[in-house]
Amino acid sequence: MYTFQDKGGDWVTLRPEATASIARAYIEHRLWVQDPEARLYFIGPMFRYERPQRGRLRQFHQIDAEIFGPDHPMVDAEIMALLMEILERIGLREMRLELNSLGCRNCRGTFRDELRAFLRGHLTELCPDCQRRSEQNPLRTFDCKVPGCIEVMKKAPILEDFLCDACRSHFEEVKANLEYLGVAFMVNPRLVRGLDYYSRTAFEVVVEGLGAQNAVAAGGRYDNLIAELGGPDIPGIGFAIGMERVMLLISQQPPRPKARLYVAVLGEEARRLGFLWSWHLKRHGVPVMLEYQDKSLKAQLRRANKLNIPFVLILGEDEIAQKRALLKDMQKGTQQQVPFDQALQILYEVLNP
Question: In the 3-class helix/strand/coil scheme, how is 116-182 assigned residue by residue?
């Protein structure tokens, strides 16, 4: 971390992450008095004194979301589902949600003792950082990216074998609720968090294309943090998205279509109707492009194809007379007639599969 003494002689540390800061603000403003459940978000810069590399900067930005109050396993599943939904809407693909249970203080204490004993027996095989972590924070040895340490940790005991009945039951319910929501995941028994205040559920979203620093987002439950900072005994859970890592991945994605639908019109009456339908679709979140210039149908189809827009709605004099538009699927090469009185409903269903 960046820790230094300012001109007034006070020691200052730049925040390495946002959760503790949000927790302090939650305590200072006694938000639990307003409502026993608080849902908060935060976007801002963080600072870590680490060796810069691809996907890891000394100053970076995070998008944080936190829920204080409920400790039900459904909340764990909900916030992971929200994270995956956000990343999918941003445009990331080939993501993998990994999760584990870190247990509570009781079962993690027993595991930590077993892990320290294991690490002492393999100390000479570990890198200098892991040798230091073996006593101070042994769980962090699972995070090491040094090949020799990775091989050693494959033989290490795992926390799953030490979970108490309550933590095991909580974790099973979290997994069941993710399945119920249709969120794909993978249990990673060696997944840990770098900070000690985490408990029970821990998770990461990993994406190919970032090298060793392949986690684009991470989070977990921290049921003891508020109390440790001087507040009441209120549980919490949250996640953080690394903005710079997301931007790296977005830059590697193929360009997204500017719209889902291109409305090709011939004549002013058709343009007025296309204008009305386009506005209704846009209000419901469907990106639409309407041709405002007088161009031939061939020119409009050529433009839609150039912009990689998957659907074209054709409105001309014949369509106006028959009160039926023509919807063309540019990828499949198929087309269907769309009655005017059902047009918005059909378009919304086709464009939001």
Answer: HHHHHCCHHHCCHHHHHHHHHCHHHHHHCCCHHHHHHHCCCCCHHHHCCHHHHHHHHHHHHHHHHHC
